[in-house]
Amino acid sequence: MKIRLLGQIAPVGLEELGGRYEVGQGMENPDGILVRSAVMHDMIMGENLAAIARAGAGVNNIPVDRCSEAGIVVFNTPGANANGVRELTLCALLLAARDVIGGVEWVRGLKTPDVAKQVEDGKSAFSGSELAGKTLGVIGLGAIGGMLANSALALGMKVIGCDPFLSVEGAWNLDHRVARAATFDEIFAESDYITLHVPATKDTKGMISAASIAKMRDGVRIINPARADLICAEDLKAALESGKVAKYVTDFPTDDMMGAKNTVLIPHLGASTEESETNCAVMAVRELDDYLTNGNIRNSVNYPTVEQPRTGDARICVLHANIPAVLSGITTALAANGVNIENMTNKSKGDNAYTVLDISPKPAESVTAQIRAIGGVRRVRVLL
């Protein structure tokens, strides 16, 4: 099988493939793609392409809906870069509290001699406040938000968090001292600092707007290491000008925030660490390899999680629409051809479904052709 690389994938991750695949940048009609930040929306997907693994959490660069319709599984690597982003967000909190950047730039312009005296005379212009005792509101308590919340407690902050989709694992990893807010409005009303750790969806785009800012405390400081379009730029700039928002720190610079008052624009450094890139690459490679080899799905953004131990002579993997009669059509086709189902898993995720069947004996091509012909079936893979 072939795997195409789009962009630079950490070599440590590629070593996980162990020579089992042809791997390269210019691979034509690959079975899998490993991608970091290359934009794929205009790319023609080959017939053999079964999966795309993104070495990172966001998948804005991948045409997920088109992939779903074609039966192409899209993986991401949630949590692999969490520590890197958590550490940069802690840095952003400190930059929001203290005018470190302004002070450093001022010192660069000082002339010798007597620099020490000039520093003592002028340092008051860059004084700030301490994080200890302040309230941090964390929106999104996934891998990054949860780690940040725990770290902020260690800095002496009071922490409240809101995440309508908090997982059981996320809840277990969260310090019991993190207070739970039922709504984002509670975060807005009670926080001195607000950090954003949610994806850009129809529900979160523009969530920092004139309406939400009006609910916040005067002098609030907002940190956005998540996505640029979580904010309404014009509304935020107006709030920065008036002082309603004292500071905005983001890891996603955009044209419309350039030159805005009291803003720190970081050049998307959250996951730009050797450790994060390695972790993401290793995780993406393992997900892609397990799917291509065994049909198992974990950390897919478009198809459900299915991890089934191998039994039988062969495994049939069917990606299909989440509609009635597909499953019965598959089992009927197998039974009619004398194929026994030894183990089976069927799960759905939204409009997409995945059925894995361990069977004996190995099916003839005519059997898989019958399954492909069932209405709603998008792709059929036979693994031996």
Gist of the model:
The chain has 384 residues and is an alpha/beta fold. The chain has 13 helices and 16 strands.
Structure description:
The chain contains 13 helices and 16 strands. It has 384 residues and is an alpha/beta fold. The strands form 3 sheets. It has a 7-stranded parallel β-sheet, with helices on both faces.
Listing every helix as H and every strand as E from the N terminus to the C terminus, the arrangement reads: EHEEEHEHHHEHEHEHEHEHEEHEHEEHE
CATH topology name of the largest domain, in short, is: Rossmann fold
What distance lies between the first and last C-alpha atoms, to the nearest angstrom? 14 Å
Number of helices: 13
**Largest beta sheet, briefly?**
7 strands, parallel
**How many β strands by DSSP?**
16
Helix content: 25-40%
CATH architecture of the largest domain: 3-Layer(aba) Sandwich
Using the coordinates above, name the CATH class of the largest domain: Alpha Beta
Based on the model shown, name its key terms.
Rossmann fold, alpha/beta, elongated, Alpha-Beta Plaits, 13 helices, 7-stranded parallel beta sheet, 5-stranded parallel beta sheet, 3 domains, 32% helix
